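FORM 7B - TANDEM STRUCTURE REPORT

SECTION 1: FIRST PROTEIN
SEQUENCE AND TOKENS:
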Amino acid sequence: MTKALLFPAFAVACEELGRWVLLRFVFLSLVIAQAGAVSASESVTSAETVQQLQARAKVMVQRAADSASQLDFSGTYVHQHAKGLYSAKVMRGMSPEGRVTVIDALDGPARRTVRLSSEVRAYLPDQKQLRVYPGASVRLDFPHPPVYDFARVTEHYQIRLAMGKRVAGRMTDRIEFVPRNPSRWGVHCWFDQASGLMLKTQTLDANGAVLEEHSFSDLNLGSSPQLAGLEAPFKDLRSWRRVKASIHREPMPQMLKAYAGSMGFHPLAAAKVKEPSSSLPHTQWLFTDGIALVSVFFIYDPKLNGQAGSAESSDLKGATAMIIGSKSGYHLTALGEVPIDTAKSLLATLPLPQQ
């Protein structure tokens, strides 16, 4: 069953990676200095308080967010996980349509993804199809650090600062986000010392094994990429099929505003989504603990009214858990970069949308 996503860039990324989603690249939180750990600019000593470390981490993250939004750059992006590797050419700069990010797949079927402030487009030349996802993405995609609420993050993670290794030929500083309990993954992030741009992230399990990694293998900063013709590589677009999803942001339902949050996950956004391939729209709610994201989909089916909830099925690919079930007239799916038990717990405690 195809699931349209609240975040256009997120939906496109799923297809780029040949999997459900890419809810990842996470990090931040409260900071506990490692003995002997050194940042690029100063030693992290026992004299530095948790609050001071937290403030430094917050500045690093904000600088990375500003750099991702404002800098022109081009480079090669690599995503590695247990099932394989995906790479793409990434360009960020100005075009006649405004500031834009262009992603050209280097592996598998040809694809160009264009992210604008008003929409996200996926050009699929092998299928002669253009897919359009209206609206800006709520999700903050690489290399933007996905920090949604720093204060909330500090409830669930410890932070460690250290000198990072070289990434894409550039010296880095590292933040380690260490979960306070097994309900979350750990995340390590590397930031370019010169520009502040985030260059690499790793998602780790409770044993420290890397589940997924996102990084630049090469990067050119400061030179504006040639982005005048976003559709120039494609011939005869008039003959292509244009597919546009319908995504309507909604005010947060009152029931969710009062929702305390299972295991510290609180509501972030809500939407009604309808894809051309689907006869019915579905409701999507997004939850976050400040870093990790979990998306929950509800599809109403009158055939399920009066039936007991179905047994759940679950799967984990890389760092992304997927839970499928039904309850009180709805098909339910929870999808997020969290352990399976965390996604199950969130799904079990959520209220249902009101018809």
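SECTION 2: SECOND PROTEIN
SEQUENCE AND TOKENS:
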Amino acid sequence: MARMQFAFVKCHGSGNDFPLIDARAIALGDADWAGVARALADRDGPVGGDGLLLLTLGDDRHDFGMRMFNSDGSEAETCLNGLRCVARLGFELLGVDRARVKLKASSADVSREPPVAPGVVTVRTRGTASLSTAAVGLGIDAAEVVGAAIPGLPSERAFTAVAMPNPHLIAFVDRVDEAELVALGEWCEAGPVLIPGRANVSFVEVRGGDLFVRTFERGVGLTDSCGSAMAASVFAAGMTGRVPFGSDVTVFNKGGLVRGRASSPAEGALVSISGNATFVYDATVDVDAAASRAQPPLIHARRGDEVAAWSAAVEALGATLD
């Protein structure tokens, strides 16, 4: 691919930040999009982010689609923090308030929601969780892992394995040990025989009826926020009896908060997450995908009021995010 110019929106969901491109009329192959992702999501580059989001065309069953490439160029099955941002852009471009979105290997329902905090644009996502170890990608005989040690995993902690549909290993802890989390996340990131497709690993604290989640994200590393990990944590909390199914849960992370709710497997294993979809600025940028390099972006408009509203919401949370 020759050097190309892209219009994009810099956005974030719960502090999980991305460049977002309306790609409905852009014809690029997967290798080129991977190069664009490495260029734009490079934390040492001129834009930076936890990955690259694409708004894509829908089909006869979907209003539009979403693709998400991690900062290493790999493509994720989903990203719920990113999905909220893509959904918002889709709403604005199509003039709708709810939609069905095509993901890499599944679908999700999205809708506008009342603000989680004053001035904060809020979107709800709803999708299905699975406990199948095959869906998670675990190479073990057990069909499910719920609140149990995983044979072959270098940890004695009890985990619940959940596919959202991307793979998650959730452990409930008294206090998050980031060094332990990173060590285990890096082990999974190496693509071991136990889980060759890798996995997102989260340590979760139960704080009353709320959750605090810390995640080592597949293809990213230790992240301030991972939307699908928060969804998987709400579902795992229900499966292990820590939070009743059907109850509203506030899920905190280093990047902010979302509202979550999950139903039991008997009721469809549906998980909804409501959180911010904040647009930071609108820009254009020149990218050399083959070299995974981007030029400094030309910023056309800043969304200062949105940024300030989210900052105020996070500041009000204070020590809750620690």
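SECTION 3: OBSERVATIONS ON SECOND PROTEIN
The first strand starts at residue 4 and ends at 13.
The chain has a mean pLDDT of 95.

SECTION 4: SIGNATURE
Preparer initials: ____
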